[in-house]
Amino acid sequence: MKQYAAILVLAILVFGGQAQILGGCRNPTGNIGQLATCERVWWFGKWIPYPTVFDGQCVKDNIPNRVLDAGYVNLTGVNTPELCIAKCKVMPTKLPNTAPGYKLAGVEFGYQCFCGNAVTPLSLVSKTECDYPCPGNAREMCGGRNRMNVFATGK
Q1: Helix (H, G, I), strand (E, B) or coil at 13
Q2: How many CB atoms within 10 Å of residue 39?
Q3: 148 vs 136: CA distance, rounded Å
Q4: Quick one: three-class SS letters along 78-135?
Q5: Model's pTM, two decimal places?
């Protein structure tokens, strides 16, 4: 029965219009829930806590459905997570009468910086898949090809 329930979660998430989270999502009651109510996500064969604080997790990104799609900055030659976070904190929002800044920043493909308030869909991957050095500090990683390191901006 448990295997059937896991397959049901995946089917609902994929075919019901919900975001797929590497196999499923469980909220505190164990029932199927919206992305925002997930308590745990299926990751490499085990349930792990859903990240409530983003501190560089590597997530899968794709075009045209960007994980963070509110804003973009090209930081060729200077990108670092810290610089991207600073840019996203002050970037004007797309909504009228809204204070500038976003809650999340993501670095990708070395020089790209994306901003947003939610990671959708969340598809965690191994941190080793975010393997592009940052041009502004080669000791840090700035995502990879269709891979993004996501950070909270503190906003």
Answers
A1: helix
A2: 15
A3: 16
A4: CCCHHHHHHHHHHCCCCCCCCCCCCCEEEEECCCEEEEECCCCCCCECCHHHCCCEEC
A5: 0.70
Strands of 40-43's sheet, edge to edge?
A: 25-26, 40-43, 46-49
| Buried b / exposed e along 105-134 (16+ C-beta atoms within 10 A) | bbbbebbbbbbbeebebbbbbeeebbebeb
Q: What is the pLDDT of residues 122-144, one digit of tens each?
A: 788 999 999 999 999 999 999 99
What letter represents residue 114's amino acid? F
Low-confidence ranges of the chain (pLDDT < 50): 1-24, 26-37
- CA distances (Å), 137 to each of 46, 132, 148, in order? 33, 11, 16
- 65 sits in the region (left: phi over 0; alpha: psi -120 to 50; else beta) called beta
The token pair that represents 80 in the structure block: 């670092």
| Terminal-to-terminal C-alpha distance of the chain | 43
